[in-house]
Specification:
The protein is built from seven helices and nine strands, in the order H-E-H-E-E-E-H-E-H-E-E-H-E-H-E-H. The protein has 230 residues and is α/β, with parallel strands linked by helices. It has a seven-stranded parallel β-sheet, sandwiched between helices. The longest helix has 21 residues.
């Protein structure tokens, strides 16, 4: 094993999570709390996670006041699972604040505090040139954070997510049932389109964060599955 990886794994690290109340974010927080690699997990959230743990430091805030929380962003690794949906946030200006402005602000502030790694949950099809608002915005946030030149930057582009969300998304729930039935057909090259459980994405993010070398990486859906051998 590369000596740099061994050294990285021996160090006790601090993680920052935004988007911790979502499908991937909730699972990620639990994975980080279980991991021996992290001595503290800092969560910035608009809602209480309603969990208690010796390693968890949770701050309930209005994201328009992020500047007040710069000291809490002194971490090694930043995990961004933040995002909304058109149904939940029909106003594109507000949508952009949630999916672009807030994550970028956190990325800048954390890097100023010394963060070395940023891990971003994006989406399959993310592209700055897309004619679809959602995938174009995902491409734009990917590019904006890349311009900050983190020593390590990891982008995760999952397909349709499987799992129970706190908020109701009827149409997505229907697609989840369909995809569960069809998932056995998505093998080989088609694996990149296979529906993926949110906790699998969370486990892949943790594994990548603590076991991979520095650099810029993009994990498509099939590579996310491969990281956890599902």
């Amino acid at each position: 094993m590369d000596p740099r990886i061994i050294k990285k794994n021996m160090e006790k690290r601090r993680a920052l999570v935004i988007g911790a109340t979502g499908l991937i974010g909730r699972s990620l927080v639990f994975e980080l709390l279980k991991s021996e690699a992290y001595e503290e997990v800092v969560v910035l959230s608009r809602k209480d996670l309603v969990i208690k743990h010796a390693k968890l430091s949770q701050f309930i805030l209005d994201f328009d006041s992020l500047a007040d929380y710069a000291p809490q962003m002194k971490v090694n690794d930043v995990f961004c699972c933040m995002g909304s949906t058109k149904a939940r946030t029909p106003d594109e200006k507000v949508y952009r604040m949630i999916d672009f402005e807030y994550p970028l602000q956190v990325a800048r502030m954390a890097k100023e505090q010394g963060a070395q790694q940023f891990l971003l949950v994006s989406s399959m099809g993310a592209n700055t040139q897309s004619t679809v608002f959602y995938t174009r915005l995902k491409g734009e946030i990917e590019a904006a954070i890349a311009s900050l030149n983190y020593p390590t930057y990891r982008i995760f582009r999952p397909s349709l997510l499987l799992g129970n969300r706190i908020e109701s998304r009827p149409l997505e729930t229907i697609f989840q049932y369909l995809m569960r039935a069809l998932n056995v057909l998505f093998i080989g090259p088609a694996k990149k389109y296979k529906a993926i459980p949110g906790n699998v994405v969370a486990k892949a993010m943790l594994k990548a964060a603590i076991n991979s070398e520095t650099g810029n990486y993009t994990y498509l859906n099939d590579k996310i599955f491969d990281l956890v051998k599902v």
